[in-house]
Amino acid sequence: MKTTEHKLTAWQAFAHAKCPRCRRGDLFITGMYEFKGQEMHKTCSHCGLVYEREPGYFYVAMFASYALNVAEMVTLAVAISVLTGSSNPWLYVSIILGVAVVLSPFNYRYSRVMLLHWLTPGLHFHPEMSEDKAE
Ligand SMILES: [Zn+2]
User: Could you list the mean pLDDT of each consecutive 10-residue stretch along the chain, which spans 135 residues?
Assistant: First the structure.
């Protein structure tokens, strides 16, 4: 039986938005920048994990999204200041808001990945669930 081919590291599973328990099934049906928006699978196609752990579970992802936004805005503000030396507030506002819009699909996706991978107590990687299914 082949078992080692699909092993992903924690970072690979995070970056590719895989199931936190088996690192095999995809979390999202759609790509990050699809016009119709991002849709999630209800359960993992490999191990059957239910992604929405309880009603309203993904509301918690808003806090992760908020943290991502703040980190991006602070980084941008420092970068604009260092690169341009400008003190014109409109330069900062327009660049930061523009980038926030462009990054919002990224924030939406990775706030949910962060929630499932890092912020949920009792949800961990189970190597035995990563094995190929018995046929
Ligand atoms: Zn899974």
Answer: 68 97 96 91 96 95 95 97 95 96 96 96 93 74
Instruction: Please tell me the distance from the alpha carbon of residue 111 to that of residue 65, in angstroms, as a whole number.
Output: 5
Answer whether 0.90 is exceeded by the pTM. no
Q: Where are the domains of the chain?
A: 10-130
CB-based contacts of 61: which residues, under 8 Å, 6+ apart? 111, 112, 114, 115
CA 46 to centroid of ligand 1, rounded, Å: 5
What does the block give as tokens for 77? 């503000």
Q: 71 CA distance to ligand 1 centroid (A)?
A: 30
